[in-house]
Amino acid sequence: MTPAAPPFEFLPGAAHSPVILHVPHSAREIPAEVRSGIVLDDAALERELDHITDAHTAELAEAAARRSAVTPWRFVNRLSRLVVDPERFPDEREEMLSVGMGAVYTRTTHRDALRPADTDPEPLIDRWFWPYAQAMTEAVADRLAATGRAVIIDVHSYPSAPLPYELHAEGPRPAVCLGTDSFHTPPELRAAAREAFVGCGETGFDSPFSGTYVPLEFYGRDPRVSALMVEVRRDTYMTEPGGPAGPGLAPPASALAALVDAVTG
After folding, report:
1. pLDDT per residue as tens digits for the range 49-81
2. How far apart are alpha carbons 20 and 226 in whole angstroms?
3. Phi first, then psi: what are they for 126, rounded to 5°?
4. Which stretch of DSSP H or E encloses residue 152?
5. For strand 19-23 and strand 73-77, is the pairing parallel, antiparallel, or unpaired?
6. Whether the Cβ atoms of residue 218 and residue 26 lie closer than 8 Å to each other
7. In angstroms, rounded to a whole number, what is the distance separating the alpha carbons of residues 189 and 193?
8. Contact, 236 vs 175, CB < 8 A?
9. Cβ–Cβ < 8 Å for 64, 260
């Protein structure tokens, strides 16, 4: 498989919008040179992509942008997270290393082999991870320069039933899970998100997934960068594991637009 689009895109919004909708896990594309290092056959790889891909989240972010009073910016990964996962720490800080799912995955969602255990992650990190990280850093810096702040809203989805790779699967699985960070998610952002998603069913914080993405240059350092992760449970808007989206995509798109408007101010 070869990518049909650039590895990532920074799609412009309104000049005075501080908001970046970040969509890191929506794509299925894997370049041929990366595919050659994956041990799954084609059918097994397609099944894995069904499970690991946050399907239709790029469409969700696009629909939210259209509905927003002030158009947010969008940073969209056009390659599968099986190439590299741009949201993982690229070092020993990453807890998902324990299940073979650091920045470069060696295990699948069902803990089977994805790549050989002795795979050197550095070439993939150098080729794909750092350019993505640099581009996202520049996107945030651009919003800081233009507006004095940046608000990253991380757009994800997650399965209705736990997958074997999950480290915190025992907690609630609400219709919408909001991931937070103690430094980068201020109380007013939490409150705005809870209010925005009230019509989407049960909403909870940090279960089954927690945290949110901030480029490392700003992470834990710059309070002008705020961030929140939005995880929409897949059975509410699509046929699992990898099927089409249905009318259930509209409510979270409208809710996300309401959140964008609330934090744009």
Report:
1. 999 999 999 999 999 999 999 999 999 999 999
2. 10
3. -65, -40
4. strand 150-158
5. parallel
6. no
7. 6
8. yes
9. yes
Q: Which two tokens stand for residue 105?
A: 């995955």
CATH superfamily of this structure's domain 8-87+119-264? Zn-dependent exopeptidases (3.40.630.40)
- The label of the residue with tokens 């069902």 reads 110
Length of the chain: 265
For residues 84 and 33, what is the distance between their CA atoms, to the nearest angstrom?
13
190-239 pLDDT, tens digit per residue, is 999 999 999 999 999 999 999 999 999 999 999 999 999 999 999 999 99
**Residue type present at position 195:** E
Six token digits for residue 153: 């809203």
| Cα-based torsion angle of the residue sequence 184, 254, 62, 156 in order, rounded to the nearest 10 degrees | 50
Residue 151: exposed, middle, or buried by beta-carbon count in 10 A (0-12, 13-18, 19+)?
buried
